[in-house]
Amino acid sequence: MSEQLALLEEAVAPIARRADPVTSKIAAATMREGAALQRAQVLAALERRGDAGAIYTDLAVDTGLAPVAIDRRLPELRTLGLAIRLPETRLTPSGRPAHVHRATTL
Predict the structure, then answer these.
(1) Closest Cα to residue 96, out of 60, 50, 43, 56?
(2) Element (H or E) spanning 14, and its range?
(3) 28/65 Cα distance (integer angstroms)
(4) For 30-53, how does the pLDDT look when each residue is reduced to its tens digit (9 = 90+)?
(5) N or C: less crowded end of the chain, CB within 10 Å?
(6) How many domains does the chain have?
(7) Which of 90, 88, 84, 80 shows the shortest CA–CA distance to 106?
(8) Mean local confidence (pLDDT), 72-96
(9) Can you state the angle between helices 32-49 and 67-79, rounded to 10 degrees?
C-alpha cells in the first residue's frame, strides 16, 4: 500500500490544454498537492467498484468531486499504472457514452 501512496503523490503534473485560458494554466500549476489527494479519492472509488469499474459520473457521485476533476485524474491514474480504461462504455445520465475504468490494484 505504501508503494501505491508513493505513486499517488508522484509528480504527475496536472496540465491545461494549449488552448485553455491563462487562468486554467495557473490553476493546473498550483494543483499538484490537490491532484494527489483527488487521485487517491478516485482510486479508492475505483477499488470499491471492483471489476465492474465505473464511468466518470459514477466516480463523481462516489467521491463528491466535480466530473471535470474526475476527467483530469483518470488519465493520471492510467499513466501511473493504477487504473485502466476498459473497452466497454456506459451511458452517462445525459445519455452519452463514457469509457469505463477500473483499478489495476484489484
Answers:
(1) 56
(2) none
(3) 16
(4) 776 788 899 999 999 999 999 999
(5) N
(6) 1
(7) 84
(8) 96
(9) 90
Confidence band, pLDDT 50/70/90 cuts, at residue 17: confident
- To the question of pTM greater than 0.90 for the whole model, the response is no
Single-letter residue type at 87: P
Q: What is the phi/psi pair of residue 105, to 5°? A: -90, 15
Place of cell 451511458: 91
Domain that includes residue 97, residue range: 2-103
Instruction: Determine the angle formed by the axes of helices 56-63 and 32-49, rounding to 10 degrees.
Output: 100
Which three-class secondary structure state does DSSP give residue 99? Answer: strand
Q: Residue 19 is which amino acid?
A: A
3-state helix, strand, coil in the chain (%, to 5): 55, 15, 30
Helix (H) or strand (E) holding 102: strand 97-103
Query: Residue 84 is placed in which grid cell?
Result: 485502466
Which CATH number characterizes residue 47's domain? 1.10.10
| Cα(52)–Cα(67) distance, integer angstroms | 19
